[in-house]
Amino acid sequence: MKKFMSTLLVALMIAVAGCELAASSSATSSIDSSTVVDYGTLTIEDITLKVNEEKEINPVFSKEEGREEVNYTFDGDNISIVNGVVKGLVADTETVVKATTSKLETTFKVVVVKSSPLGHNVYTKTSGTSAFKEVETGVFQKITDPYQETFLYQDGVAIAGDKYMASGKIELNDATDFGQAVVLAKYDDTHFVRFVLEFLPNGTFQIFTDYKNGSDDFKGYRRLRTNAPRILNFDLVVDGDMYYFFVNDLLVGKVQQDIGETHAGFGGEKSITVLSNLSGSIDEELVDAKLGPLSVNFSVHAYGLASSDADTFVKLEDGSFKKEVLTYKQQFYYEDGMAIAGSLYSMEGNVEILDDEEEAKAIILLAIDDDNLFRYVYELVEDGKYELYFEQKVDGVYSDKQVLLEAEENTLKFALAVKEGVSYFFANDRLVLESSVGTSLTHVGFASENTAVVLSKLKGSIDLSRVDKVINNTPFDYNIYTNAADSNVFTRDENGNFIKTSLEYKQTFYYEEDQPVAGSKYMISGVIELVDPVHTQQGVILLMHDETHMVRFVIERWESNMQIFTDHKLDSGFQGWKLIKSAKVDSYIMNFTVIVDGSKIYFLLDDVLVYEVEINIGESHVGFAGEKGTMILSNLEGCTDEVLIDAKIIEITQN
């Protein structure tokens, strides 16, 4: 019995000991009641990323037994973590992140660094990181040739799309002839618009624009500024198919081209191109705010050197502008936001004096500043008698007035142009004064005194071809579909004819009453004469959509004959040559009429239909060209009135 009790006691003691041992194991393991489980460790490496850059967090478990979902906690708003992906939000910050599971924990650092503002094109994925090197904080320099490009980012976000703004400062240093610094909006190598600061062989700088839209050829070359600064602050603003370029807060150029989404970028060659103060935005409200003032026609002096009176001119329903008050007030002119100012510009329109007060004056001024300016004054000198005079103000003192014109009308039609330090002033289609304005930058403005005035049909331009058109007093300008035109092709003689004397091939396009003779339905007539022509000398009528879509009618000397022929381009070189007339003549004169009616084209000589063709080149603009000798255009008359055109077609086709 005693032995039995001892045995029972030992058994009970063993049982109790076993129970205690089992309770201790369950605190560390739910798998094996007699084994302690090692879950290993959790580690995460520190992460460095840029603003708006995202990286996946990579938790490392040393043992599979410890692998579980990881939760992340941190203080502040410098980063975000969603579904295991961390994103940088604030540059130059460091955040400690705690990572935990139900069994393990660790910490790691997330460092957000400042993003480079330059990188690859988001559409072509071509690298632009090597084109410009950061030589000091925020300053990027390109030294080596050949031409390379890089593209703009703001805090890691591409300044790209169909609505954005890119800003900065650009310098063109140590340039050789035709060295360039380029600001561009680019989709790919055949779709972009660019604005170029270029060094010329004469030691000056110019700004021009051109583009590519689906081909390898540059198109739409237009000079925007001569005598441009070597260093300039710029803004490139893109709004759909409109591209605007500002220099020192002044709009100097705009281009309309539908090339799709683009990325703001920079390039350079034959120079040391330096970029600094770069920034960009894809915020539509900021873009709209930048473009908002472009609807203003009258504002302050572009260079802030001359006074301006607010609300002097009020726009009327017919598009003209009126100044009501009789006291002297002045304001300066802008065309679609572009200051008609600088060293190259033109201004056209009418000024009308409304009151018959003594010394009623309508004034056009070219202002350097308040103490230095040039004035063209149209004044009522006595009942029904007006005179136009010129005066110059130098260091606050006016010169004696120079009378240019006497008239009996209260309205003066005027045109003026400034180019290469010379101003040209036309009154009622006649050049009345050519004078020096020197090298100072001027801004055209308007004023009146002792009368209300109306300004109508105002047109200002800083485009070279338009300036030359005004100076030459001709109805020619750029092609409305390609923006292409040569300058100074024709000059007007004393008889009102237009003469081309250059031996080079040059082309320009026709306007009637300042409206392009263009579209899908129009008519043009006139006379082309070749003066003492040599073999293969030509005079050309162009119906042009672009350089690969056109129809030509050509008068040419061929050996000892005059021949008239036609040909055309459709996506390729000239084709479809057809002789219309060939004859021995004493005078090489073509009295022509061309009618465009959709894809149908009629060609008349001496008002007789001699050729018609159906060919689809799209809408076109009529122009004229020639080469190898003197060519005279006379009796030009354009028409876009569909009723008159239809009547003419009926007349020539029924005879």
Main attributes of the structure:
655 residues; mainly beta; Immunoglobulin-like; Jelly Rolls; 4 domains; ten-stranded antiparallel beta sheet; nine-stranded antiparallel beta sheet; 8% helix; 55% strand; globular; disordered N terminus
Q: Can you describe this structure?
A:
The chain has four domains: 72 residues, Immunoglobulin-like (Sandwich), CATH 2.60.40.1080; 175 residues, Exo-inulinase, domain 1 (Jelly Rolls), CATH 2.60.120; 168 residues, Jelly Rolls (Sandwich), CATH 2.60.120; 181 residues, Sandwich (Jelly Rolls), CATH 2.60.120. Helix content is 8%, strand content 55%. The chain contains four helices and 58 strands. Strands 26, 29, 30, 31, 33, 34, 35, 36, 37 and 41 form a ten-stranded antiparallel beta sheet that branches. Strand 6 and strand 7 form a beta hairpin. The N terminus is likely disordered.
**Helix segment tally:** 4
CATH architecture of the largest domain: Sandwich
Query: Can you give the helix content as a percent range?
Result: under 10%
Q: How many individual domains?
A: 4
Summed over residues and divided by their number, the pLDDT gives a mean of 89
Look up the CATH topology of the largest domain: Jelly Rolls
Number of beta-strand segments? 58
Tell me what portion of residues adopts beta-strand conformation.
over 45%
Short description:
By secondary structure, the protein is mostly beta strands.
Summarize the SSE layout with pairings:
Layout: H1 2-25, E1 42-43, E2 47-50, E3 54-56, E4 60-61, E5 71-73, E6 79-82, E7 85-88, E8 93-100, E9 105-113, E10 118-119, E11 133-136, E12 139-142, E13 148-154, E14 157-158, E15 160-161, E16 163-173, E17 180-188, E18 191-199, E19 205-213, E20 219-225, E21 231-239, E22 242-247, E23 250-256, E24 262-269, E25 272-281, H2 284-291, E26 298-299, E27 314-315, E28 321-323, E29 329-335, E30 338-339, E31 341-342, E32 344-353, E33 361-369, E34 372-382, E35 385-394, E36 397-398, E37 402-407, E38 411-419, E39 422-427, E40 430-436, E41 442-449, E42 453-461, H3 464-472, E43 476-477, E44 491-492, E45 498-500, E46 506-512, E47 515-516, E48 518-519, E49 521-531, E50 538-546, E51 549-558, E52 561-570, E53 574-583, E54 588-597, E55 600-605, E56 608-614, E57 620-627, E58 630-639, H4 642-654
Parallel strand pairs: 2-9
Antiparallel strand pairs: 1-4, 3-7, 5-8, 6-7, 8-9, 10-13, 11-12, 12-25, 13-14, 13-24, 15-24, 16-21, 16-25, 17-18, 17-24, 18-19, 19-20, 21-22, 22-23, 26-29, 27-28, 28-42, 29-30, 29-41, 31-41, 32-38, 32-42, 33-34, 33-41, 34-35, 35-36, 35-37, 38-39, 39-40, 43-46, 44-45, 45-58, 46-47, 46-57, 48-57, ...
